[in-house]
C-alpha cells in the first residue's frame, strides 16, 4: 500500500534543532524527499535521499533513513524563524510521488 | 518561463458549475503531475502524465474530474459540476524524466466552491 505518515505539528525554540519524523509503507521506494512549503507558495524541494543510503547532510539539514523500519527523519540544526513552514515527506514509487500530510514547524522565540 | 505557472491563482465558483485549471510546466519537462491540497489532508495525488504515454489517472476522485495535456506541454484540469468538497488548492508540478530529478511545483490554484 501507499501511505506516508508524519506528525502534524512541531514547536521548537529558535536556535535549537528540529527533528521531523516520517514513516512510509512501501519498501520498494527508490527515493525519499523532503519538501518545504511556505504560506501561499508551492512546495520547494529541500533534499532527497536514495534508498540505499543511510544519511545525507547538506549544510544545516541532515536526513537519516532507516530502511528496515521504513523511517525517515529531517534534522534542521540551529533552527531560525525563516524555517517556519510545513515540511512534507514524500516517497517515489515507480513514477508516482506520494506525500505525507505535512508537519507544521512553529518556531518559539 | 523560469518555473511552473498555474492560472488562475484563485477561482470562486458556484456549486454545479464547471471549472478549468491550467498548468504551464517548465519547458523540457516530460512529466507533469496534479495534486490536490485540502486542509488537514496533505497532498492528494490526482493524475500523472509522462511524455506520450497514457496518463496515470488512478488518483482522480470521481468521473467529474478529468485532465489533458496538449502537445506534451500545457495541461488543463477540468472539474465538472463542482461540489463544495472540491474546494482546495490544486497544485501542478513537473519534472524531467530522470528518476531522481525533483518535482518543481507551481504556486497552485485556490478553488472555492460556494
Summarize the structure.
The complex is a heterodimer of chains A (109) and B (114). Chain A has 109 residues and is mainly β.
SSE topology:
The complex is a heterodimer of chains A (109) and B (114).
Chain A: E1 4-6, E2 9-13, E3 18-24, E4 31-37, E5 43-50, E6 55-58, E7 61-66, E8 71-76, E9 85-93, E10 96-99, E11 103-108
Parallel strand pairs in A: 2-11
Antiparallel strand pairs in A: 1-3, 3-8, 4-5, 4-9, 6-7, 7-8, 9-10, 9-11
Chain B: E1 5-7, E2 10-13, E3 19-24, E4 31-38, E5 42-50, E6 65-69, E7 75-79, E8 88-95, E9 104-105, E10 109-113
Parallel strand pairs in B: 2-10
Antiparallel strand pairs in B: 1-3, 3-7, 4-5, 4-8, 6-7, 8-9, 8-10
**Which stretches of chain A of 5+ consecutive residues score pLDDT under 50?**
none
Overall 3D shape of chain A: globular
Which chains have the largest interface? Answer: A-B, 23 and 23 residues
Beta content of chain B comes to: over 45%
Structural class of chain A: mainly beta
Quote the distance from N terminus to C terminus of chain B.
Answer: 33 Å
What is the radius of gyration of chain A computed over CA atoms, rounded to a whole number of angstroms?
A: 13 Å
Report on the biggest sheet of chain A.
6 strands, mixed
Low-confidence stretches of chain B: none
User: What is the number of beta strands of chain B?
Assistant: 10
User: Which sequence of SSEs, written as H and E, runs from N to C of chain A?
Assistant: EEEEEEEEEEE
Q: Largest sheet of chain B, if any?
A: 6 strands, mixed
Describe this structure in words.
The complex is a heterodimer of chains A (109) and B (114). By secondary structure, chain A is mainly β. In chain A, 0% of the residues lie in helices and 60% in strands. Chain A has strands at 4-6, 9-13, 18-24, 31-37, 43-50, 55-58, 61-66, 71-76, 85-93, 96-99, 103-108. In chain A, strands 2, 4, 5, 9, 10 and 11 form a 6-stranded mixed sheet that branches. Chain A has a 5-stranded antiparallel sheet with strand order 1-3-8-7-6, with no helix packed on it. In chain A, β4 and β5 form a beta hairpin. With 114 residues, chain B is mainly β. In chain B, strands 2, 4, 5, 8, 9 and 10 form a 6-stranded mixed sheet that branches. Chain B has a 4-stranded antiparallel sheet with strand order 1-3-7-6, with no helix packed on it. The termini of chain B are far apart. The chains are: A mainly beta (109), B mainly beta (114).
